[in-house]
Design brief:
Elements: H1 3-6, E1 14-15, H2 26-42, H3 47-65, E2 73-76, H4 79-87, E3 97-101, H5 107-113, E4 121-125, H6 132-137, E5 144-150, H7 162-171, E6 175-179, E7 198-202, E8 214-218, H8 264-280, H9 282-301, E9 306-308, E10 321-325, H10 330-338, E11 342-343, E12 345-347, E13 350-353, H11 361-373
Parallel strand pairs: 1-11, 3-4, 3-5, 5-6, 6-7
Antiparallel strand pairs: 2-8, 7-8, 9-10, 10-13, 12-13
């Protein structure tokens, strides 16, 4: 599982930024080229094949998160759109409250705060690494309608016990929304085991796909309960006969949330990327990702002046490792690494590294030497 087998990154590039925007695997690059060549030579004459690829992508995504059916999978533009569909598809009463973590990425904060005009309170909970689930659960009361949490926090890399949260939400009849963008593709996720009502994740991070196409899982019993606010030809039950749309009905599947024409270029790209993940097996990928983070923990623990800002216990870290160095300007250290070909990100008061399953140990060793010498 070396990078040369699946990627064509230039020599000297050390890509440790899968928590932001991932590089495309070679198979994905080839799929996009083939789609462009076909479109440029014969146009849309094989459009039905494109639709079949779209259906196959839904099946792949359903397999990836163990959804009961590919009919539970919608293909949206991004995580923010999915969260917005939920926020404005529910009927709120003044005094209702929503629970989120204090360190959430803006996508999973702004949408809920936008409901303030409806009298909805957003309770932002400061988490710790020891028992963050209890801190969230302690905020539940009889007006709590929804918990929305990132499976893995984008800055610290804290991994949540989603099963525990799902069970607590079910017990208290609270809607459970999971922003899984920092987990799916890196670690296994079973939407049924965690009892999620909704799971949303854009494909451009750990799923190794393009920006602009996201997985939207909606548990079956929510399909018809979530109020629709977007409408168009693609969300109707029978979208093949344009002459019979006078008496249209929303699709009985999660396609009801897709109001317009699909992003077929992105569909072909993500289809190839997910195909690679499923071929490798998420159990194997998770093992390699966690091994890389454990290696970073071990190495950086031994370096002088290093503070690890991410959790270091086995049940709390995922694919993100964040650190800083005492007496060193964070921005200068970041630029020091960038100048040497490292693609990473300044996040959470430190430097965030996010290697994937294919990242060679030699690159992590080299990175540690550069940090140590600075």
């Amino acid at each position: 599982m070396d990078s040369e087998s699946y990627f064509n990154l230039k020599p000297g590039v050390i890509h440790l930024n899968h928590a932001a925007v991932a590089p495309w695997p070679t198979c994905t690059v080839e799929a996009v080229k083939a789609f462009a060549d076909e479109n440029g030579s014969i146009g849309s004459s094989r459009y039905l094949d494109w639709v079949n690829t779209e259906t196959e992508l839904r099946k792949q995504l359903a397999q990836l998160i163990n959804a009961p059916s590919h009919d539970d999978i919608g293909l949206l533009k991004n995580t923010s759109e999915g969260l917005s569909l939920i926020a404005y598809g529910l009927d709120w009463q003044s005094g209702d409250n929503i629970i989120i973590a204090d360190e959430e990425f803006p996508s999973n904060r702004i949408v809920w705060e936008s409901l303030k005009s409806l009298g909805v309170e957003v309770r932002r909970v400061k988490l710790n690494f020891e028992n963050p689930e209890q801190l969230l659960i302690d905020q539940f009361d009889n007006r709590t309608r929804l918990l929305s949490i990132s499976a893995v926090q984008y800055a610290s890399g804290l991994r949540m016990n989603l099963t525990r949260l799902g069970q607590a939400c079910k017990q208290h009849q609270i809607i459970f929304v999971v922003d899984a963008i920092q987990q799916i593709g890196a670690l296994q996720l079973d939407c049924q085991a965690i009892e999620a009502d909704f799971v949303i994740a854009d494909g451009h991070k750990w799923m190794l796909g393009p920006e602009g196409l996201a997985l939207f899982y909606c548990r079956k019993d929510w399909l018809t309960k979530l109020k629709l606010n977007q409408f168009g030809w693609h969300m109707v039950e029978d979208l093949s006969d344009f002459n019979k749309m006078d008496d249209w009905q929303p699709a009985s599947s999660a396609r009801r949330f897709e109001c317009g024409s699909p992003n077929m270029l992105a569909v072909h790209a993500l289809h190839a990327s997910i195909g690679l993940l499923l071929e490798q097996g998420m159990e194997n990928i998770e093992r390699r990702v966690l091994e890389n983070i454990q290696y970073l923990i071990n190495v950086f623990t031994s370096l002088e002046g290093i503070s690890i800002l991410s959790p270091i216990s086995n049940d709390r870290y995922a694919g993100i490792f964040t650190f800083n160095k005492e007496g060193v300007d964070n921005e200068q250290l970041y630029q020091h690494l960038v100048a040497r070909g490292v693609i990473c990100a300044p996040r959470g008061g430190g430097i965030r590294l996010s290697p994937h399953f294919y990242t060679p140990k030699q690159q992590l060793e080299q990175l540690a030497r550069w940090v140590e010498e600075f």
